[in-house]
Sequence to fold (366 residues):
Amino acid sequence: MLAGVLIAACGGSLNQGPTDLTTVLVWVPGGVPDDLTEAVSAAGGVARTTEVLGGILDLSSSTDAEGAPVDRTADGRTIPLDTLAYDPATFEAFTNASTAQTLSALGPGDAVLGATSARLRGIGVGGLLTLASGDSLTIRAVLDDDAIAAAEVVVSPETARNLGVGTRRFLLAHVERAPTEAVELVRSTAATDEPLRVVSTDGIPWKRHGDQVLPQAIVKDRFGEFSVRPAPNGKLSPDPGWVTANVVTEPVPLLGSVTCHRSIIKLLQQTLGDLESQGLGDTVNPKGFAGCYYPRSIEGLPYLSRHSWGIALDLNIVSDDRGRDVAFAPELVDAMAQAGFISGADWPLPDPAHFEYVSSSVEPPG
Fold:
């Protein structure tokens, strides 16, 4: 049984194929199962596929090309880095020659940084990442975010498996069909009794798992980066300096006191205030507000929840902790969307009570 599969078609690929060749993205929250990959690869009309591995590497320190210290964590803290691993032999057809050559040159202990990641790290080619495991990675290149789906770090598949980030996060396939037909073909190939999400992704910037939200590198770039360490009750403890500088508690109409990132508090105040002034205050149940800033990992996954930055909030929860027992008023969903928040209602694992800030075109107010 293949549960909660997301399949998306993305046009305008860089491959050298027929004009109606479509790139299809396939991902499952917990990782792509063997039988799904095999079924898609064997389907008539599928020209080629490539699997992309991924996970989180925990950074403990770094140095620049001259050996000068840059990052230094202490007290059991680490900096989580979103990591992908492309197979250069099969990914070559899905990217440009320069990116393929760079990835094919990666050996054991080598890594590539995305452009945003390099800026966050303050290091480039020749820099060294030291992981909590004691392993080290030498930076051999810096690639544009678009080339590597905004990953913070890219390593070879062999290195990924050795470092424990070898989960198959998503699958790319070239399908000899126009986008609509390509989606239908893959939909039928990945038939399941569980809800199947299929969307055309023409214009979607990030060809990766979790493509509906901002990649972690972009979130860090806009809202700040912090180190973490485990805390009681499954929570995480972010760097106190980051918390002091970025997390605020202020009153928000219809909700009361809200603790979240300082960059979105005005958006929430304005958006929910407008709903209240329009006589739509009953679209929000103040007793169903389950918080905004709550540092933790995503349930069952190694990735930081966006609640850890205080840029996501849970609304109108009653008895089901994902809000699936609530019929959300369209006025609330529309108002939040206009403010830059996506609802989790259409996610592979539906989470309609979750509203996450995803706008990348308009800077949130500081």
